[in-house]
Design brief:
Shape: globular
Helix content: 40-55%
Strand content: 5-15%
Distance between the termini: 60 Å
Radius of gyration: 17 Å
Number of strands: 7
Length: 175
């Protein structure tokens, strides 16, 4: 019984630590204290103007999920958006791939790697974005990972965090 209580206490402590880290990362982002430069509105508009292909990591086949709606919006806006999700075969009639690297090998390079994953799961996607030569790592609303941003920036990629591609496309380009 004591072992179970200790494991529960450790799990709760770990959850509190992760939440503190997430809060500090969000505050650093909001206050402009992050260790990596992020794109401003003009640079985001320029990225969209130069973008043709977008890998949507975490794209869901569930129409109720934000990633489904964003993927649909990007496709409707004329982008070649490719779903990346190892748990589904297709999204919106488009074949889904398990990894960004696999999708790039099968279909060609991506300009933006758009990530719908929890912040603590973003580092491998940043590494993949660098590996395939993407131009931008984009972390969706509520997603802030300074480690992923550092990896992407060191790999020569532009970085956007805590912003939605669909919202920003409407706001900075389509008015």
């Amino acid at each position: 019984m004591a072992d179970v209580a200790e494991r529960l206490a450790a799990a709760a402590s770990d959850a509190r630590r992760r939440e503190r880290e997430r809060t500090m990362a969000m505050l650093d982002l909001q206050e402009g204290r992050g260790p990596v430069p992020l794109l401003d509105d003009a640079a985001i508009a320029a990225v969209f103007r130069a973008t043709h292909r977008i890998a949507v990591v975490g794209a869901s086949a569930d129409p109720g999920r934000p990633s489904y709606g964003v993927l649909r919006y990007l496709l409707d806006a004329g982008f070649d958006a490719v779903p990346i999700n190892p748990n589904v075969a297709e999204v919106l009639g488009r074949p889904a791939f398990s990894t960004v690297v696999g999708a790039a090998a099968a279909t060609g390079p991506f300009d933006i790697v758009d990530v719908f994953r929890r912040s603590e799961l973003c580092v491998p996607h940043a590494e993949e974005a660098v590996a395939i030569g993407a131009r931008c790592l984009w972390l969706q609303l509520g997603v802030v990972s300074w480690e992923a941003a550092r990896i992407a920036a060191q790999g020569g990629l532009a970085v956007v965090m805590d912003r939605c591609t669909a919202i920003e496309l409407r706001r900075v380009l389509l008015g």
